[in-house]
Amino acid sequence: MLHFLFRRVIQAIIVMVVISIISFLVQGRLGDPVQQMVGQSVSLEDRENLREELGLNDSLVDQYMRFAKNAIKGDLGVSYYYKEPALEVILRKVPATLELSFSAIVLIIVISIPCGVIAAIRPKSLLSKALMFFSSIGLSVPIFIIAIFLVYFFSVEWQIAPSFGRGETEVIFSFWETGFTSWDGLQHLFLPSLSLALALMPLFVRLIRSEMMEVLQSEYIKFAWAKGLSPMRIYFVHALKNTLLPIITVAGIQAGTLVAYTILTETIFQWPGMGFLFWDAISRVDTPLISAYLMVVGAMFVITNTLVDLIYGLVNPTVRLSSHGL
Amino acid sequence: MKNIAYLLASFFILTTSFGIQSAPLSMAFDADPVSLDPHEQLSEGTLQLSHLTFDPLIRWSQNGDIEPRLATHWEQQDEVTLRLHLRKNVEFHTGNAFTAKDVIFTIQRLKRSTDFRAMFDAIRDVKQVDDFTVDVITHQTTPLLLNILTYVFPMDSKFYQGRDEIIKHGETFASKNISGTGPFILKHRESGVRLDFVRFANHWDKQSKGNVDSIKMTPIRSDSTRLAALLSGDVDFIFPISPIDIPRVKRSPNIKFIGMQSTRILLLHMNQARRVEFRDQRVRKAINLAINQSLIVEKILKGFSEPAGQLSFSQFLGHVPEIKPVYDLEKAKQLMIDAGYEKGFRISMMSPNNRYIQDERVSQAIVAMLSKINIAVDLKTLPKAQYFQEFDKRSADMMMIGWQSDTNDSNNLFEFLVACTDPNTGMGAYNASSYCNAQIDERIRAANVEMSPSLRAKLLQDIERILAKESAVVPLLWQSLAWGAKQNFKIENIVNEQNFPHIGDLVVE
């Protein structure tokens, strides 16, 4: 276990270095940060001075070395727009994104497991067919269209859910800004988390269904029926548990998709989280913030994937971490 | 009986006047201030914030007149000296009293600001006459001095004194703290997410009927999210509304739509330094004739903008009513034949795709229109962050740009867009045509010091006539502004073509 974690840390460092180089190379192509800082009538000379002050005239290698040196000390630069350390700006936005992702994950679990199981045990029923039909639509319709439809009906037409923002928030444990503690905050969470969940849910419904159907054919399930166990116990304990392994693998991979979708969802709903921040940073060419975001997300990926590998071992003891090639 | 009628009448007056109570306002605009420092960036977001938390010396009223605010009246002392009389009994949010010192402090600070310097270089000095009188002294006669003074929002000199540095990248005292005399006090700011204001109880303007007691301002970048926020009732007042959404807004009974022509001109530069073909006036004329401005406005902007045949908007001194956008394809083809380009040629073109209203679709339409006279256009559209870098380098044969005159005057357009490029003076900094005409430069310089409005108008109109005769650039359209609000918010009285709504005067019923 310790050996595994140690190797993971080494891998993580390599991954972070690669990410930092890529994020740095991308920066030069994003545009001119100085252009975003000045008004239209500022002279070329003043712009040139500002560029010099920001160190943008140095060679890319010099700029990278400077960035890397500071990054090792935990300093990812100062955001041009927020004028604060980029890492602090991002960490302040983490709670909003995590609360949104958490709510979406809860919705995915609560909805997709029963749907998948029902579709597997009653494949011919009308309900299962409807579920399959909607899941294929869900897979093929992009998230922003789903989100726009949700806003149109729930906010504009019926006016039962707010269309943007986080609403009232409260600071708990002195650093975590939460929307969970007030009714207003929960209402604001409704549409963004639902559209984020709808983007990922169809995949899980279909995956659980097909895995479950396969497991239901296996010998030990037949044995369980023969033993006279209750159907609930067979379906939800014996069968479901054994379908989980591939699902966890996919869930780990989908964590990346989730991050990508939070950028879209947060932008559509003006949700003040990391994704929205990143989107804004790109349009403002706030390069320190862009690199810092990529580094933070990269770190989050490495952590989730490590956790997924650890959960593997818990769900299926036959999987040994060391033999996993990790 | 008569008495009863009086009684009833007075009762009604009482109830209606009680009916108007103070109300909160929730608004969503596309821009937000990058900093609380009013002198860090000359941008719409900064100036909108300034109009809330500060008061200008003078400001533009909705019909284009200059309106006294912290300066009550003024007179010209001699050719280069303007005497300003300041309002008395005005208080800053900190409780400090407003005096001439604050005005001097502010103008001197403006002269140090990278963004405002271009305008304030015209001012040589500001002298205090007494506590409520100052003399503004210019280097030479400056016809646009009042226009420039609309940018002076006196800052609390006692509050900022000694910690008033202006830095574009990095935290300063002024970028995080604010104290003005304005109708609203900033309570809370989360950059890019929200700004909260409350009404300043000791604001000097007791005449104002404005009854907004607090403002929650949310910058919303996405057009559809912003509109949904208004339609769902989450916010009361938004800007802008995309042209395609205008019919939808007009259909909603609870929402009103307010449109207004702006002076922002959208045009195309044809780079004569890059292309020998563009040096031929006949080719430039042919391009002007082949582009159908009215069709672009009608089809792409849904009639919401005004086709332009010149740079100066109709309210500007330089506007020449006879110059209209002309579309004549046959004549354009003939001119191309005359110039020896019957078979046409291939050019490159660049335009932004998120800067001006429908900019990408407008440029695609232009590509189609130019193909009719056999000019094949390789169009590249870029996000604004990348586009203006290319624009500065003049990377394409044809480039799009929009310009709003900072001084609300034609000459600012000419100085930046069509004057001969001179890196030393900054003239022609955005002249991506590389067009250079001494007659124009001469008139620009003359108009900068000409005090007589009629002579100035003649100079500026001459420039428009020369530009039209030479077909130096392709003027496309003047963009319109579009606001939306709930019916009980009387925004129609407080919006203006500069897009600095005077929310202090907003009445909510």
What features would you describe in this structure?
Chain A has 326 residues and is mainly alpha-helical. Chain A has two domains: 2-72, no CATH class; 92-324, MetI-like (MetI-like fold, Orthogonal Bundle), CATH 1.10.3720.10. Chain A contains twelve helices and two strands. Chain A has helices at 2-30, 33-37, 44-53, 60-72, 86-121, 126-140, 143-157, 183-216, 219-227, 231-269, 274-284, 287-315; strands at residues 170-172, 176-178. In chain A, strand 1 (170-172) and strand 2 form a beta hairpin. Chain B has helices at residues 2-19, 44-53, 100-112, 117-120, 145-149, 157-160, 173-176, 223-231, 246-251, 281-290, 293-299, 329-338, 359-371, 384-393, 410-417, 438-449, 453-470, and strands spanning 23-29, 58-60, 66-68, 71-78, 81-86, 123-130, 133-138, 184-190, 194-199, 212-219, 237-239, 255-270, 305-307, 345-352, 375-382, 398-403, 473-486. In chain B, the strands form three sheets. In chain B, strands 1, 8, 9, 10, 11, 12, 13, 14, 15, 16 and 17 form an eleven-stranded mixed sheet that branches. A four-stranded antiparallel sheet of chain B has the order 4-5-7-6, with helices on one face. Chain B has a two-stranded antiparallel ribbon with strand order 2-3. The longest helix of chain B is centred in the first third of the chain and has 18 residues, at 2-19. Residues 7-19 of chain B have low confidence and may be disordered. Chains A and B meet through helix 2, helix 3, helix 7, helix 10 and helix 11 of A and helix 4, helix 8 and helix 14 of B.
Question: Which features would summarize this protein structure in a list?
Answer:
heterodimer; A: 326 residues; mainly alpha; 2 strands; B: 509 residues; alpha+beta; 11-stranded mixed sheet; 17 helices
